[in-house]
Design brief:
about 240 residues, alpha/beta, 8-stranded mixed beta sheet, two-stranded parallel ribbon, 8 helices, 10 strands, globular, disordered N terminus
């Protein structure tokens, strides 16, 4: 119904004005004025203020993983990032654990924390809907070549999960991937075959230079599994905290 209303509105804009409307629309300069009278200056309309995009804040689970990685040195002196799948957000940290950026991401169309066996050897056309997941876990990511000699950051080469900019081809435009990435909520950010799509500027200007030489770590939070099952070291961290007396 809304589309129909917009279509009628568009036709109304294209239709010629009626005689009464055309008369009302005449410029003020065409009306008679006393000789020597000066035209009143028009007041400039205030420029429209665009609302700032909401800032991405780390979730409690993101902070838990970050604190553990920083305290334990699990990143082995390399940069790392945390992908928060439930909130479709990515947080990038340097080797010392300082947050450098927070950006939205696109992830696998189906919620799930495990890759299907053999999915990495399949063609895209052979992958079923239930297999289009972004697996959770800890990965050592490095750059490499994908099909078509495209250079991507391989999160898990054996399951064909890569991190790369949002595609710009016809299929991606049809899926409105760029619009999904820019939307204010994570509700429509599940659209990929399992890869992690990020904004192009973030990928080229910040992430690529940091991961270019030795790579870095990627920690992907789970959709449904207990986070301690995905990152067992968190069990130890909880046990090390003394109980309140």
């Amino acid at each position: 119904m809304i589309q129909g209303f917009l279509a009628l509105a568009a036709l109304a804009l294209l239709a010629p004005p009626t005689a009464a409307a055309a008369q009302d629309a005449r410029p003020a300069a065409a009306k008679s004025k006393p000789k020597g009278a000066k035209a009143k200056p028009r007041k400039a309309k205030p420029a429209a203020v665009k609302a700032p995009a909401p800032e991405l804040a780390p979730s409690a689970d993101t902070l838990r993983v970050h604190d553990w990685v920083s305290e334990a040195g699990d990143n082995n002196g390399l940069p790392y990032l945390i992908v928060d799948k439930p909130h479709a957000a990515l947080f990038l940290y340097d080797a010392a654990g300082k947050q450098l950026a927070a950006v939205p991401v696109l992830i696998g169309i189906t919620a799930g924390d495990d890759a299907s066996p053999g999915v990495g050897a399949k063609q895209l056309s052979e992958i079923g809907p239930a297999e289009k997941t972004t697996p959770a876990g800890r990965f050592l990511a490095k750059f490499g070549l994908a099909v078509g000699k495209e250079r991507v950051l391989w999160v898990d080469y054996y399951t064909s999960v890569a991190l790369h900019p949002v595609p710009t081809g016809a299929a991606a435009r049809k899926e409105k991937r760029r619009e999904r990435l820019a939307s204010p909520t994570p509700d429509d950010n599940r659209i990929t075959f399992g890869c992690i799509n990020v904004p192009t500027a973030f990928y080229t200007r910040l992430l690529s230079p940091m991961y270019a030489k030795k790579g870095g770590y990627v920690y992907v939070l789970p959709d449904s599994k207990p986070i301690e099952d995905v990152f067992p070291a968190l069990h130890v961290k909880i046990a090390a905290v003394p109980a309140a007396r």
